[in-house]
Amino acid sequence: MSAALRILVTGGAGFVGSHLCDRLIRDGHEVVALDDLSTGSKANVAHLLNHRRFRLMEHDVTQPYDVKVDRIYNLASPASPPHYQRDPVRTTMVNVVGVHNALKLAEGCGARVFQASTSEVYGDPEVHPQPESYRGSVNPIGIRSCYDEGKRCAESLVMDFHRRRGVEVRMARIFNTYGPRMALDDGRVVSNFIVQALRGEDLTVYGAGSQTRSFCYVDDLVEGIVRLMEHPTETGPVNLGNPEEFTVLELAEEVIHLTGSRSRVAFRPLPQDDPRQRQPVIDHAKRALGFEPKVPLRVGLRRTIEGFRGVLGLTRHAPGLASESDAPLPQAANG
Ligand code: NAD
Ligand code: UDP
């Protein structure tokens, strides 16, 4: 294990952020999760709240804050289309002002910053699969642009702070990631389908379901994020995701199969600007970080289904313990 570090995780009570906090605590670090709980929840970190190396700071990243840390993982942002379209102006500001505040803090205390960018910077891609060199096809005035352009502007700020002001940066373009602790009302395809299947409701497939996505299990993503942060020189942007590509209809059928549900597929209108295809080229992550997703879709879906069964009260599983990676934490509960 590397030396113990003081680490800030913005968005630390969210889906990815809470799994990242688990990993960092397990690695022996001191972790502050900064979150306004707008799309995340205290329940995601409930099992960490009494840990002596963990602190939850309820705060909005667009407002100034001050903590002395060695690492900043900047994950705060609504991430699902329904969440980020609810208040699009705020989404842009959270991404732009949020990363600006993180970068200024890093400049002041000499911390290294990881920026959670997204495959959305590629928009509805004309190049398939997408390498990091592809510059994307984003509609700058569409209903997704608050998020897509917010993240693109954030990438620009990250690189300018690096080039002009010497801040150490790391940046990953994250492709669709799923797992336990996605919010029930998140609206993303994996959580929607699982919740619908477990409730015996129709699975809402948008369009004909022929659009594709590549789904990465959260533990694989977290491994890639930590490897990138601790790489001595690699700044990124680096694609992180699982290149196995599925149509949305295939995903629906797999979820019905794995849940044993009697639910059926119901077709709904395709949202505006919905990307037709998405698959990462991860050669760079493989070469630079030794990153290789290990969890096949079926295995990851099983774990996620178990997590949602717990949340929905269909088993005795506690939501905070839903991931197989959630082994008991070292030095727990000593205030
Ligand atoms: P999430 O909504 O579960 O987590 C985001 C967290 O940020 C939440 O806890 C939320 O409360 C917090 N937050 C939002 N606005 C905030 C603010 N103004 N101040 C403080 N906290 C705030 O979503 P997630 O899937 O865990 O996404 C985490 C990050 O990863 C996001 O930056 C997202 O853009 C990025 N990402 C995720 C995926 C994915 O598939 N999960 C893909 C690409 C990029
Ligand atoms: N989708 C769907 N049904 C749902 C939710 C999403 O068919 O209930 C589709 C959506 O139109 C998109 C894909 O699934 O084509 C992935 O959507 P998600 O919101 O998970 O992520 P993103 O579009 O940002 O990749």
Indicate the topology.
Layout: E1 6-10, H1 15-26, E2 30-35, E3 54-58, E4 71-74, H2 81-86, H3 88-109, E5 112-118, H4 145-165, E6 169-174, E7 177-178, H5 189-199, E8 203-206, E9 212-214, E10 216-217, H6 218-229, E11 238-240, E12 245-247, H7 248-259, E13 265-268, H8 283-289, H9 297-311
Parallel strand pairs: 1-2, 1-4, 2-3, 4-5, 5-6, 6-11, 7-10, 8-13
Antiparallel strand pairs: 9-12
Bound molecules: nicotinamide-adenine-dinucleotide (NAD) and uridine-5'-diphosphate.
Short summary of the structure?
By secondary structure, this protein is an alpha/beta fold. The protein has 9 helices and 13 strands. Nicotinamide-adenine-dinucleotide binds next to helix 1 and strand 5.
What does this structure look like?
It is a single chain. The protein has 335 residues and is of the alpha/beta class. Helix 1 (15-26) packs across helix 6. The protein has a domain at 6-175 and 217-240: NAD(P)-binding Rossmann-like Domain (Rossmann fold, 3-Layer(aba) Sandwich), CATH 3.40.50. The longest helix has 22 residues, at 88-109. The chain has a 7-stranded parallel sheet, with helices on both faces. The chain is 35% helix and 16% strand. The protein has 9 helices and 13 strands. The chain has helices at residues 15-26, 81-86, 88-109, 145-165, 189-199, 218-229, 248-259, 283-289, 297-311, and strands at 6-10, 30-35, 54-58, 71-74, 112-118, 169-174, 177-178, 203-206, 212-214, 216-217, 238-240, 245-247, 265-268. Residues 80-81, 176, 188-189, 192, 204-206, 211, 213, 248, 271, 274 line the site of uridine-5'-diphosphate. Uridine-5'-diphosphate (UDP) binds next to helix 5 and strand 8.
